[in-house]
Design brief:
By secondary structure, the chain is α+β, with helices and mostly antiparallel strands. It has 3 domains: 181 residues; 91 residues, Helix Hairpins; 146 residues, Histidine kinase-like ATPase, C-terminal domain (Heat Shock Protein 90), CATH 3.30.565. It contains 10 helices and 7 strands. The chain has a 5-stranded mixed sheet with strand order 2-4-5-7-6. A hairpin with a 6-residue loop joins strand 6 and strand 7. The protein is rod-shaped, with a radius of gyration of 53 Å.
Length: 468
Amino acid sequence: MGSFRQLLLVAFMVIAALLGGTALRAVVILDRLMAQSSQEAARALALNGAAQSLAARSAAMERAARQSLVLSDVVLRRRFEQEFAAAGAALEQMAESGLPAQDTRPWRAHAGVIADLMNGPPSTALDRERAIAVEFRELDALNGGIIAQVQQLIQQRNEALGGQLDASRARLTQQVLLTIALAVGLAVALGLWLARPFRRIERAIVDLGENRLDQPIHIRGPSDVRRVSQQLEWLRLRLTELDADKARFLRHVSHELKTPLASLREGVALLQDGVTGKLNENQLEVAQILHQNTLTLQAQIEALLRFNAAAFEARQLRRRKTDLLALLQAHVDAQRLQWQAAQLVVQVSGAPLWLAVDPEKLGTAIANLLSNAIRFSPPGGTVLLSLSAVAGTVRIDVQDDGPGVPADERERVFEPFFRGARQPQGGVRGTGIGLSIVQEYVVAHGGRVALLAQAPPTVFRIELPHVS
């Protein structure tokens, strides 16, 4: 299979050939109709001219014939014969142009009678002149009929030509419409066929961006699309290796740090217990500072391990149909002691809504948001958890009466290990990974989590895709 550029060029050439062939056929038909129209116009002019000539020749014949009989003039007789021959030629011209023979036969019969009356003794010339006058009146009537027949024949031919023109136009219109339909159908089919690999490429890039690295990337299509597919597969394997290297690095570093940290804690504990000798007040204060920092360092290492584990587990969802309202209520009940100790009111609102999710990981995200809301809410405050479905999206809102997040920190609240300046008084300082884990688990479900603009109250919103 050729490249995408070559296939696209072939597609355009096929469509151009269809449209160009139809246009060329239209030109040929138009030329033929114009030639036929010119021929019919020439024949009509010839017929009409011959009919007018016949009438004029008949009048000249009558004058020459009657004057010749009255005056016994040879010159006038010769003129009659010339006009008679010219009238016959006009009749032949009309016959060649399509006038039926039965329309000219009566005229020829009367003309023959007139020619016979021109011959005879001088003593009967006047009688023959009166008979010829009668015959010429009949001939004039026949001339009128011939002219009418000529006009009718011309009209019939015009109507036939018009019918042919209409039929040709109708056929050409059908061919043009059919060609346009074929061209559009071919363009749509080729567009869909050529666009399919790009949709797969887009899907593969999204999967890489969302760290879903377990599915091999193999996209069939043109040669350049296959090359992009191979490069994306190489990138997937490289990201998988880097991810594994990162996990190994974190495990090794945490292990290497925990061992000396444990020794440091033991040593500080021995100092505090006075095993090496009684400490004075200043020395004891230093030992307490060391002890507190070792605890902080241990918490940081454990938080790092938890975040790394969460990032890894986010790619391994175990979805099942879950009642999200019941899931919210379960985590509210699980933290009942905490929010009751803080003298808070926690409310859950919304209708039961079922969705295929990983209840453990989504539950962890909800629990982290609820825990944050409890930590930052003032005594006597209210925490609201609401569930709703809007335009194909499930929304879970967690709202508290806390001080909110400063505007300059909003963009960083989901960064790992970021801790804002506003911390609850008297509370344990957080590790800064709770919201990062929330984002990992929500994004793994194909959704997103955001801090809404208004503050206070502070509102975190989870949005998950939902098809009704």
